Amino acid sequence: MTQQTDTIAASAGAPGRGGIAVVRISGPRALSVLEAVFAPGRSALSAAASGFRFRPRILHYGQALGADGPPIDEVLAVHMPGPASATGEDVAELHCHGGPGVVSGLLESIFAAGARPAGPGEFTRRAFLNGRMDLTAAEAVAEIIEAPTLEGVRLAKAKLDGALGRRIEALRSALDSLRIQAVLAVDFPDEDAELLNPPAFAAGIAQARQGVAELLAAYERASLWREGAVCLLVGAVNAGKSSLLNALLGRSRAIVSPLPGTTRDYIEETVNLGGLPVRLVDTAGLRETGDVIEAEGMRLTEELADAAQLILLVVDAQRGLGPEEDAFLARRPHALAEGRLILVWNKIDAAPGALPQTPACARVSVSARTGEGLADLSRAVRAALLRSESPAPGDLAPNLRQADLLRRVERELAELAGALDAGLPPDILAVHLDAAADLLEEITGKSGAEDLLDRIFADFCIGK
Question: Which carries the bigger pLDDT value, residue 382 or residue 113?
Fold first, then answer.
């Protein structure tokens, strides 16, 4: 256990107003700080002054005292002795009304009693340093907080109890078995035929690579649900892209005007399509222009189209496909072939009759003004984005940092397999095994520099 000499405190909730707020304290002085700011029942005396004693893990009703003595609010208080606590240290919490004045006053009193303000992610960092969780579980805490949909929460929760860390440890244990063989073969070169059996060694490498491949496949399945997909709205001026964006969002976000060129830059908003987070991007209309700003907006549209997971080419049904759309389609043969483009025939309420022939791609007819066809469009977008396999229940999906390290592990194992096939000596094999094992330890936090922890926990919110 890492001994911390100072005591930290912070609000565990989001800033702003709410019915209830939780103020958390952690460190060696957590109990004494709590006793200084808490008066049991309706007493005006602090817990320490009144002789009151907290029963561990029992909520107690009382008054929160201000730094100058008078009560601030009615609260519930609890003391949770370490090491059986969230951080592995003594922890205390005060549950108060969620007004910013109450919370700030209570924190001021707590700081006056000997605690200091917690930094971003410092509670979770202490839990990691004290062995209450490995780094994969600590990162899962942040992923749950940041998850934009329930599916993202489920994916993060699967790792919260350290299941991913245990999976990584199992891989590392398998590599340790291979490392032992390689080290013994180095130390006893005359016995290498018995100590390092090439077929069995190759089978061990293949099994480890399969385990890494399964985790990377889970990352690919989950990345769309966790990070969202970019869906680009493209079309000629006045095709109704901004109206369609507003209709899909259910509110006015983009300026709608009959004047061409109203949207000069791109506008981005996120919508939840059946648990799938989709970032809708409204772009500048396609047309020839001498306006420098509008031209730059169209250049950005081309760049975004190359990177987007899905393109909605919005066409005015009254006008049909024009040279701007034809040129855009001609520049995107791969998007058509890969099913990354949907033709959205807009304004069908003003264009009755049969629709003309269009390119061989998915097509949905809608009216952004009346809402007709919007449900069909949402289903089509979701289906197009979910062409690949979706996450399975209990999937242990690494995050971006972990996936990058796993790819490096895979490269080391591939080079290891090549070195074995080439008949290279055991000391060369050991180098690749050591490198792969170190990378796996970096995933779980068993190795890695302090600045790595600083980068990871800097992205946490204060109070977690």
Answer: 113
